[in-house]
Amino acid sequence: MFTKVFTAVIHKEGNIYVADCPEVSTVSQGCSIEEAVANLKEATELYLEEFPLPEEISKPLTTTFEVAVNA
């Protein structure tokens, strides 16, 4: 068994936080950021039990961009 670091992308939807792991496409939620990440960790561990990682998995490229919005 080994440890791997994954990415958690978190956003708020109403009263909950949604956490997404782009490397393996797992998603979970919680009432706090900490709970959402803990639930995402558990969901990812369960997912990887059924679907092991390929030999090479790349980190997603994360960037930002601007969009004009008519308010």
Describe the structure.
This protein has 71 residues and is an alpha+beta fold. It has a domain at 9-50. Helix content is 25%, strand content 23%. It contains 1 helix and 3 strands. The chain has a 3-stranded antiparallel β-sheet, covered by helices on one side. β1 (9-13) and β2 (16-21) form a beta hairpin. The model has no long low-confidence stretch (mean pLDDT 91).
Layout of strands and helices, then pairs:
Elements: E1 9-13, E2 16-21, E3 26-30, H1 33-50
Antiparallel strand pairs: 1-2, 2-3
In short:
The protein is of the alpha+beta class. The chain has one helix spanning 33-50, and strands at residues 9-13, 16-21, 26-30.
Considering the chains and any ligands shown, give keywords for the structure:
single chain, 71 residues, alpha+beta, 3 strands
Q: What's the helix count?
A: 1
Q: Trace the largest sheet across and list its strands.
A: 1-2-3
Radius of gyration: 15 Å
SS-derived structural category: alpha+beta
Largest sheet: 3 strands, antiparallel
Unreliable stretches, pLDDT < 50, 5 or more residues? none
> Helical proportion?
25-40%
SSE pattern, N- to C-terminal: EEEH
CA-CA gap between termini: 51 Å
Overall strand count: 3
Mean pLDDT: 91
Shape: flat
Our estimate of the beta-strand percent is 15-25%
